[in-house]
Design a protein that fits this description.
The protein is built from 2 helices and 13 strands. 14% of the residues lie in helices and 35% in strands. By secondary structure, the protein is mostly beta strands. The strands form 3 sheets. Strands 1-2-11-8-13-6-3 form a 7-stranded antiparallel β-sheet, covered by helices on one side. The protein has a 4-stranded antiparallel β-sheet with strand order 7-12-9-10, with no helix packed on it. The chain has a two-stranded antiparallel sheet with strand order 4-5. It has one domain: Jelly Rolls. It binds succinic acid (SIN) and fe (ii) ion. The site of succinic acid (SIN) has 11 residues, from β8, β9, β12 and β13.
Length: 200
Amino acid sequence: MIELELRGFRILPGYLGAGRQAALVAALRDIVAQAPLFAPVTPSGKAMSVRMTSAGRFGWVPGPSGYRYAEAHPQGQAWPAIPDAVLNIWRDLVSDARDPDCCLLNYYGEGARMGLHQDRDEADFSWPVLSVSLGDEGLLRVGNTARGGSTVSHWLRSGDVVVMGGAARLTYHGVDRIRFGSSTLLPKGGRINLTCRVVE
Ligand code: SIN
Ligand code: FE2
């Protein structure tokens, strides 16, 4: 399998073939049925353009009091379990010593994006963040471990997996835009990104 390296991010293009992508989407439908996507608002009060939900012991929930991990969906129910189809990727590429506590699901509809940020609400940065892309292509931007400086960009396609760990665990990253309608995986179009993290 081809592997790319982008500022310490390990990129595995086409890690998931068509069959595994479709199986994953089916499993994610069950998650969204139990824990509906919601429109998050940042602590500073800005509406995010992605819609979001989670699976696992913890979900990641932005809100007025800050970015935090919560044991319940905003509607009150526990988060659904992380599907085996996701855990298998983690066990293959990250570790079979422990499973992630959280699988965050971000849905990018037409025009959605995500600004440059660090993933830094977890207790132990020795665990990488595993990212899985499904559906429409998304333009990943990668910066530096401190704010500012030059950036590089890379189009992520459906089935691509990224491991953000080691010296790049706190590297700034974001998604500038998607190419809406570039994939037929999701019937209504758009892009799903899953990120799995060890939280505690
Ligand atoms: C994220 O950093 O949370 C999302 C990255 C992506 O959508 O590829
Ligand atoms: Fe992130």
